[in-house]
Queue: 4 jobs
Job 1
Amino acid sequence: MRDLSAGPRVLLRRLRELMAEPLEPQERLDRIVRQIAANMVAEVCSFYVLRADGALELFATEGLNKDAVHLTQLKMGQGLVGTIASSARSLNLSDARSHPAFTYLPETGEEIYNSFLGVPILRAGRSLGVLVVQNKAHRKYREEEVEALETTAMVLAEMIATGELKQIIRPGLELDLSRPVTIEGDAYGDGFGLGHVILHEPRIVVTELLNDDIDAELKRLEEALGSLRVSIDDMLSRREVSMEGEHRAVLEAYRMFAHDRGWVRKLEEAIRNGLTCEAAVEKVQSDTRARMIHMTDPYLRERLHDFDDLANRLLRQLTGFVPGGSGLPQDAIIVARAMGAAELLDYPREAIRGLVLEDGAVTSHVVIVARAMGIPVVGQVIGIASLAENRDPIIVDGEDGIVHLRPISDVESAYAEKVRFRATRQEQFRALRTVEPRTRDGQDITLQMNAGLLVDLPQLSESGASGIGLFRTELQFMIASTMPKVDEQESLYRSVLKQAEGSPVTFRTLDIGGDKVVPYFRSAEEENPAIGWRAIRLSLDRPGLLRTQLRALLKAAAGTELKLMLPMVTEVNEIRLARELLNKEVRHLSRFGHQLPRSLQFGAMLEVPSLLWQLDELMEEVDFVSVGSNDLFQFVMAVDRGNSRVADRFDTLGRPFLRVLRQIVVAANKAGTSLTLCGEIAGKPLSAMALLGLGFRNISMSPAAIGPVKSMLLSLDLARLEEGLLPAVADTRSEKTVREFLMDFADANGVSL
């Protein structure tokens, strides 16, 4: 074969001319494969496209039997072509028939050809098809020939992505790019979202693939890389981050990649082969992603995300792309590999219908914020960012942790009906907003809501909650890139009290540390962060942090009522130490003439089992106690809520835990101490019914749960429930579970669940 040093550039120029001509799609494909074969002096060039049913169909060929076009097909993983598509790796063989994956297709007439070079047609690391050249002679294709064919395949990937080939696919079939995809992930936020994909960091669509001046493109690349390196160095020096999770170690990895000579050499090579800077970045990024995407090692997968982000940054440098330029649809489903809480708040809340994450965990800051905003969330949806295109239809099922991308009409109809039913139920609950929460036998119950952001506050009146039983002050710290100053904290707390319009608000002091890491507050890694250096433990070790927050709370509540409580209390003495810090702040503000709250209530959260042996002292020490049922259950039952193997192993309505809760109620009643419970157990009608039967009269939950719980208690004869429930909890011999007792009681007594 002849020297190909200029081959790729000549080929790409001719392909560009073919793309511009007004040709029918099949004729364009036929001329493309003819051009590739001629340029590479190959006797065969074949173009296979992946269909939605997983078959690779021969769309065009030069050299094989023309009658095989649109008839020959291979499954993913079948034959040499199927192996290339499934592995996203090229195959370069001097004797194709000796390869174990070779599959004989008699209709093509390819048995006379020995050498074989096949490359995947990739877009965003995803296989869309395969491009093949063959020769009769036994030979290995040279590296520059492989590179030339890979570069050509990239041009064909864009042709597939434009949808032009849909015109020539047989009726009833679809290309893989538009096929429906269902992916199971982890359910992080309740509810359903129907809408259209908005990629959080959308791929830059490269429109100019082929360059006219190699030297000019190489200079553009050098300048863009220089700007990229400077921006990373700047972020490192100022310790500012553009997205949550990009801490120093990640930025150091970015700097390493940005200076990696292997990466830069591949970019330069692609440009010398005729691609523009942008197309070169996309090609190298797609090749790298295709090779790494199947790796199971979590460290390597994390490095892949780092590399992806770096390549996207370089593309934005080259194109001058500014995120958020296009308008958001009113039914946006945000799709992201990873994102920070602050970035989610940049989107208009009224337009967001759901959030889908490739990464994330139930404790991720962005997930906590999304749940607080009432947005359905599904995490660990591997590969979704590569599969999705902007404005694709998508459904998020936050109850079962399922995402349906480009759903079929039957699935869409089923979910639309679910959404309508849910909306009808919510409308019925809204009608109860002004109804007093009183049981059928006349016992008053207090229903409050949990919150942590200003966006939560409108739901106070909408839900009919009587107040905020838990305001998580740490969310302000999680979404900020630097430590909120005292005046910033004061401004938030003042706004919360103002919007509450006189309804009681219970502020929980900072619960950071452990797994709730904030970007500007670094602490040593811990083996068991949930039971480590967090919450009041951290605050007492860093009294300046707690005093700053207490000062902000006292100033914000000037002239009104302030209720604050301490999280993660383990010993009563911790409450006394925190009270001393509070008294110091009261004296400090008084000395400088600041107005103080009209009344002050000081409480503690009961989340750590050790307090069960200090209940009498606890009830005497505080004005109120709030049971944090999530952590208390986790610690009592030794169950890690983030561990799927054990998270559902024990029932929150099991006798051991209900007896613990009853013990707390008895102690509070004996001391005359106000008692509430905030946690997921309060937000479900059946478990809320159990709490009322145990003696709780004040419970706090998510705003969306207020309606269903109120509907339940309005239909409940509480005295009759207590009469049966307390003996059922105490009965150690009964084979009937407490959950079964509650279900039977609800059925027999017409309780609305």
Job 2
Amino acid sequence: MPSYPFRTTREDFRIPLPDGTRLAARLWRPVSDEPVPALLEYSVGRLTDRTAAEDARRHPWYAGHGYGAVRVDTRGHGNSDGLPGEPGGDQELDDGAAVLDWLARRPWCSGRVGLLGVGAAGTTALLLAARAPDTVGAVVTVCPEGGHRLGGALLAADLHTRLTALVADAALPPDPRHVGDAWRTDWLARLESLDPPVDAWLAAGETTVPVPAPTFAVAGWGDPSCSFVLRLLATSPTARALLGPWPHGLPEDTLPETLRWWDHWLRDLDTGALTEPALRSWIGTRWTGEETWPSPDVREIHYGLDGPLRTAGTASDDRHVRVRSPQHTGLNAGAYVPLGRPADQPPDQREEDGRSVCFDSQPLPEPVELLGIPTVRLRLREGGPPAQITARLCAVGPDGTSTLLTRGVLVATGPDADVELAACAGTLPAGHRLRLALSSVYWPWVWPTPDGAGYALDPSRSTLTLPTRHLAADVGAAPVAFEAPALPEPLDVHRTEPLTARPEHVTVHDIGRREWRAELSPATDGSRTHPDGLVRDEHTVTAYRVLTGAPLSAQARTDHTVRLERPDIGWDVTVQTRTQLRCDAGHFLSVVQLRALEAGSVVFAREWQHRVPRWIPQGDSK
């Protein structure tokens, strides 16, 4: 254990809620005669197994620097009492507010509380801060998750995988080592209460997340949360952000920056947290700092699609360019949520460009630095059906290599279509060309439109707008640097790789059937034995299929199995979940299946079927 300002202790206990439910909690606390602030991480991830390794790194470090760091499992998850509810719903937030109030009144707590959350828990942290503004002094949100639609199009990538994992998390039992013989009764009650939120997820529009407390946001470029982070900076004067070359999750090198944030807001220490640039970001070769956001060093450059950018696709007798893509356009998109594996990154985009209509610039005479949210304004042919537009921005090298910079999707219902691309940062070298690639399909990121008709656009009335950073913006600026923390030794978790490990990402083209299939396996596959003897074995496969010329053939499926064992007491439970999604012309159709086994025997099995309209009525978006 490295040397920290405080010695630390760890204890497990249960937090009582007003209705008598008790939530499982783990506290790392400094040995001190003075009360200290509390930091709460409130999550559906089981603190005794799934998040144990990460918790054992960062929370003792926070405790060693003077904080009571608390991990709490939400109601009906892990070893907490009660029945699982809707993630981010009123019950979860009411419970969280009660936890905050309970922590603030502990004798060891100074009454000041901060919130930490990663992924979905990062969104929950912001919602919870809005629910309890008088208790929460500051928030650190990491890669907060948004809604289930992208520009109005329903996500195919990640949505059913997240739904499958959500059902599995809620279906796993409490651990008898922590709750005793009541585990089985509680488990069966959880299983009987389950109701996957398919209707709500498929019907929901874009989500709006408040920023009520001083918020420090951390994300990696390429994570879907980046655009939200930039909007947060633009609307909150007390917000700060780090956007770096990281996968989804909380980078350990950023922990000292989060500590400076906590120290400023919860301990009134002069850490200089608010004197840092509003945005510190990695732009491909170096770190940069923007004192305010929007930054005066970033200006918009406009490229007309019939001038600076041109395509060879314009017919001589029609000013409109037709965009109609094969249904497998998008198979080289990479991971929607990058987790740091090689297959997460989108490969050379030339195959995708060949399935799209491309507008190219001349070779750049000097480097161009991008920082912000690009947009594309398209003028579509009047009177057409709703169009699903995918816009990709690529850098094309002198050798023809096409590197994806960013992309965006929009379901356009009128002739004027404003497509917002994901926030990005990077440097385009001189001699490279800009490429705007437009397609009418982006599978399996978003579901295809029913007719596959595509759309037609008028290049003379269409524009690409890029946020370009002044090349001399860093002259005289202080360098941006980070100091790596000295963290505790990793938890002694023994990992056993599968004997026949699946490839991360495989694509198969069945030429005879004109079918394309993609199969993905996550890095979490394998068996992990924890220091207390618990064995967690996990396997997941996500598959997509589509026929080249048949948009209604698109299908997605995830199979997820989690097995928990305590060999010393003969405890052996397995949860198997499967989610399948497909669509017809007017509806999304889902089947969610769950089986729970004890010592190999089925104790519970259920199937849920949902039929949800494809289109959101005007004004019903949430």
Job 3
Amino acid sequence: MVAVRKQFRDLADPEDVHALIAELEINTGTETVPLAQARGRVLAERIDAGIDVPGFDRSNVDGYAVRAEDTFGATEADPVELEQVGRVDAGEQPAVTVEPGTVVEIATGAVVPPGADAVVMVERTAREDETVTVRTAVAPGDGIMVAGSDVAAGERTLGPGTELTAREIGLLSALGVDSVPVRSPPTVGVLSTGDELVAPGNALDSDAGQIYDVNSQTIAASIEEAGGSPEVYPIVGDDFPEMKRVLTAAAEECDLVLSSGSTSAGAADHIYQLIDEHGDLLRHGVAVKPGKPMLVGRFENTPYIGLPGFPVSALTIFRHFVAPKIRDAAGKPPRERERITGEMAVTERYKEGRTRLMPVGLVEDGDGELLVYPVDKGSGATTSLVDADGTVELAPETEQLDAGQTVEVTLFSADVRPPELLGIGEDDPLLSRLLDRLDSPRYLSLGSREGLRRLRNGISDVAVVAGPTDREVETVELGGWSREWGLLVPADNPDGVAGVADLVDSELRFVNRGRQSGLRRSFDDAVERLADERGTDRASLTEDISGYTLTAQAYESPPRRVLAGKADVALGLRASAEPLGLAFVSLGTQSVRVLAAPDRAEKPGVEALEALLPPADLADGLAGIEAGEH
């Protein structure tokens, strides 16, 4: 088939898409499941009590079963004396009757013996031999739960549509119910598309542009959270006939089919063409960000929704549009989304003319006030799935959210809480070990310069800064360490690299770090010193370094390019050399400092971090890292 590039149809209003999805018919049946497997399921039928609960008059206390009239007038000063004639324990049938002037010792939960109509608490009595002294009067029914007073036989106990939690399961257990009729969860087919996708656990060929499939398991887990039963199908490449075959099978076997990817209008995007030509394409494109290339339709008379391929877009569209439909099909009531309000930590500009579901993170300032900050690395960044706590919905006409402006955050789940500590800055192997010892930290490895910027802007609690900086802000220094940095080369250093000059004077392929990194700043300073020695400027020298502008995100990424044979030299740490089997050329030592915002220094999370510094015991096995020196 020759692929045809096609423009998006008119983008639909989000509310219209909600209404359209609500109209899709998803018909599920009922099934009977053991009570032990019923948590979270929804009752399909009413359940009436088949027995009284309790099924007998039961003592609520430890004490003595009595005839109430025998205690009338009893007080502490003028008690009555009665004769004990027996005892009844829980789980046994009474073998004695309470006659006038007698009592029977009784345990909590035991059957009240014949003749008794009340129970006196043991604390209001005294006993000597077979004589029981009662120091209080009781009325008929005191200390007794009458048969059927909890649940009466024939009583309506739970109605259809009830979601079974631990409480309902406890009630059903009390009724002796061991299996229940429940709504069958909708079976939802999950299909990821794209030649570039590989299932996790299989070998990945990055040189061929392959990436692991994120959406299949992410969406499947989200379906379960919404009350559905996911059926994950094998990844389908950008092949029209195969896509049609798998989609047809999913439509025959499932109540709803979800695909991800291939929904846009590119030449290799076949799903929308497939639905359009062989099904019923009801909508193509919705006016939201992220998630514009969304599909709604039917295939083989089965409801179908196409999610975008980027993980953040796919999950956002699922949560916003699809999860409510699955809950409804499962018989679960609409979930009131947990919403909280906070103040924007920074100004955020937006001028795209469509609804934006902006991922945001939460952090508390030094006074415990909730701040909201954007977490948007792009729809393809999977870390946005865990770095964000919820979304802020921006109307199409919104152009800007100002710092300090109150916004409403829709949380991803009701148990979301701000992290105990929010740190932003340099990535470092010792820092990773340090964070493991803290409760609920969140750390964004965005580089030293970005860490300082966000600390200055009031977003983070701490910044971790490596090497020289030119953007100092008012901070409280908590502690730090030192680390040796330099150039990583293949084992035995076959090119004889000795320093920066070898990069300038040869065609060796170099991998640098990004501009935000403290390692990059130290390297640039080294190039600057070499330029001074040669009587030139740094820019001239960097033009002679092959790959100077080729950067990688984390401290171990550049060395791994050397390991893979994609580069000859990489900027990095001595700590990376031995684990990767590379040689190391030292260029110096740089300090790593942990800096706190002055108004956050007394936050419990910041104080807990400070208490771990210097982390001397964490540096074991990390070559070139000296804890306590910075």
Job 4
Amino acid sequence: MSRAVPPRLLAACATTVLAAGLFAAPAARADPGPGITGPTVRPGTYLADAYTDGCSATGTPGWVTVSYPGPVLFATTDAPAARFELWDANGAKVLDTTATANPIGEVQTSIADLAEGAGYSWQVRPEYPSGPGTPGVTCRFGVDRTPPTGLGVHSDDFTNSGSSKYAGQPGVFTLSGADGGSGLACFRYVLDGTLSTTSGCTPGPGVVVPGADGTASVTLTPAGWGTHNLQVQAFDHAGNPTQPLPYTFYVPWNPNPPKALGDVDNDGVPDILLPDSQGNLLVIGGAAGSTAPTTVVPAARSPWGGSWSGLQIVHKGWSGGGAPADTIYVRNAAPGNNGYLYQYVNQGALPLGVRTPSLVGHSKSCVDLAMEPTTCPADHSTTYKAVQQLVAFGSVDAQNPEGITLLDVEQGNLWLQHDPSRSGGSTRLTTTGLWNGYDLIAPGPDANGDLALWSREQSTGVLRAHAVPKPADGSYDFSGLADPADGTVIGSFPVAEYPTLGSSGDLDGDGQADLYAVTPGRHLVTFKGVGTPKDLGVLA
């Protein structure tokens, strides 16, 4: 009679386990047999979040956590049946049974009530009418039903008693835990959200692998001031999860937030906002080297139709004092739209849609460039229904240099909409009616505070720059916008090659505004200024 298997044998890695002799089986049965393929133990290890065969002499053994009906031993065979044999860590046989193959050659068996610990070895051999065939390779697994222990979270940057960092600043959180069975596989975490219950240790956002000391560090940026909650959970290699651990901390308001035109997530860097193929809204950092988003706003949080696709989304400036990130405006540009414009006053706490947006209307009053009331022209619209183009231009109000002004095209003319949330009034900039057929791009102010408008002629793809200088008195000179054909040609971006063309400002921090574009194949391309294209990859 064999000795009992110790309840939780340490198994940090496969080579250690093999060296300790825990996975012993008759050496004569180690040669693969042609009648057996694909031996696996199920449900397998959480190390790679998939079935593992544990059949390589130098590979990682599988770990299982199920208690009934126990680990499932699986293989395929060209024989009508197969014989399964299982040994414990001491070499004592604990299973010897035959299973009939199904019509596609699959055979399997299970065994319950195995003691916890490493060291189980098994083989399967084909059973032909003429007799047994050659056994397959020796495979190995361990049993671990006990979740990790000692789960903890620590941060010197964001504490329960008083944080040293402000909203919008990154901080380090150290996650820790212990496991004496199959070993820690990963930590899952989410800031101000709900942990997934199905993803296990699949690599991706919110998953980190601990080091040999059982700890891992993650850097997170709480967007808004106030109380935040970090949820953490640990998994071992058998798939055993701990209960989620909440870590609650308070983040103070930053008295000097890192404001940057084009920034929507409060990190001081302009962002690109584009829909993915499923209608979700991707927030992609301007300094990113790929299309991986910093935030994904679900399609269901769109103000129209459960999708962000087909909506016009503009941002560059702030509405209201103290806001650290761009106010975001969303408009349905489809034919027959209702003329509504939604506004998200943004405190940097994405994703959008957590707060209900406000509905802002086209100003019913008109002002001149000195912000003095004036009579509206007869063709002045009181909705956004007739708007053909819309961009967030920046502020043109010397009294509110951090405010936001929208620039649009209506009936071929350019109009300024001064801070729609405050009904700042509308100003008609041109009377020539020549701006039909042009895409508008607002690069934002330069280092001297001068503004500009870029226009793309839709029929030719020619991109022109139109200067809007800022004289010494703090006003702006819009006289260069009378005729779009008078602008300075700075490039060519045919609509067929770049259906979407825009700018969120200075994406790379070199002091000049940059373009981005989306190709017909949904590749996101960024430009250094208007040249040096860089393909960041396909939008999801």
